[in-house]
Specification:
There is one protein chain. The protein has 10 helices and 14 strands. The chain has 377 residues and is an alpha/beta fold. Helix 1 packs across helix 2, helix 6 packs parallel to helix 8 and helix 9 runs parallel beside helix 10. Bound molecules: iron/sulfur cluster.
Length: 377
């Protein structure tokens, strides 16, 4: 019997909704009505589910059954169109979710790029967009160049809270994956593979119920090696990105202490063994830090590391932030690093920073509320 006190529909799959419906003595087709309302129409309250009789809506609310849609607390709009959302959950904890019209610059050449879709989206000013979502409140991984790390980890997000970020942003932006090209990256706050079960359940809901294509989703891990192998076996899964950031173990352990546990040898073995699909590659994210990991010898070591992996590399010049002791490299160093990789035949892109002015760029998500650019709405 389902415990009905404070039940949130968001996060439930078809089987769970069917059993809920049964437990309240309603006919089986109500499960489909809930799925439609929660994941396709993205309603915020029981009252908005127009397919349910009024009496039932009231009695569900009385039983403590709600939608569980997270609340958009604040929006910060960048000059480049990026929107950083502060999203709050039922217990008052919050995360950041980022909307990037025209993607994050990292999609070119990876099979998820898109031009004008011919559906009028170009007239709106963007042809595709990317939502960057969080998987935990804070993060325990402690990468030295990342503002999120300064928060520590507060808790995991539930599957409903992960999906809820997407639903809230889609609703706010008035877009739907059925009509618009929407990419999703699990690259916000937290390490998704340290919240694996909720992350993977969220992925299934996003694909099967919200309607996002798994080929348009990418999950980034700092290198939780056993989970990479498990992830490879999933029937429904996003693309894999690995946050590499260093070219040898000494350097990586300094920048990402988890490298002590899962070193480069183990990480690269997991990447080589990862079962890739047709035309798929493993993405390696590399944050360039001036005079730390951006030298010629680092680039040459990266070339050695990536031998035997169907890889693409995204280079990201450090996004500066208060409390971070590294400097952003000059454009020429970034270009020189890219050239060494490209000359070795590695598909390598430089990701342009999005929303730096509102602390929405990679590694900048820290629930920063006091910033110069005031909320636009
Ligand atoms: S870069 Fe990612 S994994 Fe590392 S501390 Fe930041 S949020 Fe966590």
């Amino acid at each position: 019997m389902t415990d009905l006190s404070q039940v949130a529909l968001l996060g439930m799959d078809r089987a769970e909704l069917s059993s809920l419906v049964e437990s309240i003595g309603e006919p089986g087709y109500r499960a489909q009505q809930f799925l439609e309302a929660v994941y396709r129409q993205r309603v915020e309250s029981m009252d908005q589910i127009s397919t349910l009789p009024q009496q039932l809506r009231v009695s569900l609310a009385e039983k403590g059954i709600g939608i569980g849609m997270p609340r958009i607390e604040q929006r910060f709009v960048s000059q480049d169109g990026t929107v950083r959302y502060l999203i709050t959950f039922a217990d008052g904890q919050s995360v950041e979710t980022v909307w990037m019209p025209e993607g994050d610059g990292g999609e070119v050449g990876d099979g998820v790029e898109a031009g004008d879709t011919g559906d009028g989206s170009a007239a709106r000013g963007w042809g595709r967009a990317t939502i960057c979502i969080s998987s935990q409140v804070g993060c325990a991984v402690d990468c030295q160049f990342c503002l999120t790390a300064l928060l520590g980890v507060k808790r995991n997000l539930s599957a409903g809270e992960i999906v809820g970020q997407v639903c809230a942003v889609l609703k706010d932006q008035k877009v739907s994956p059925q009509h618009d090209r929407v990419n999703l990256v699990f690259m916000g706050m937290g390490e998704p593979f340290l919240n694996y079960d909720n992350f993977i359940k969220a992925v299934r809901l996003l694909v099967q119920e919200v309607g996002l294509a798994e080929s348009r989703m990418t999950v980034s891990t700092a290198g939780i090696v056993p989970r990479i192998s498990e992830f490879g076996q999933e029937a429904i899964r996003p693309r894999l990105a690995i946050s590499l950031n260093a070219s040898n173990d000494d350097l990586r352990t300094k920048l990402m202490p988890l490298n002590k546990k899962w070193n480069l040898e183990r990480l690269m073995a997991a990447a080589r063994d990862f079962p890739l699909r047709n035309r798929e590659r493993v993405t390696f994210e590399y944050v360039l830090l001036h005079n730390v990991n951006d030298l010629r010898e680092n680039a040459e070591e990266v070339v050695d590391l990536l031998r035997g992996v169907r890889a693409r590399v995204n280079l990201i010049a450090l996004n500066p932030g208060p409390g971070i002791d590294f400097e952003t490299p000059a454009d020429e160093s970034v270009a020189a690093f890219q050239k060494i990789l490209r000359d070795a035949g590695i598909l390598t892109f430089v990701r342009r920073p999005r929303g730096r002015d509102i602390y929405a760029a990679c590694g900048q998500l820290k629930r920063t509320v006091e910033i110069a650019t005031a909320p636009a709405r």
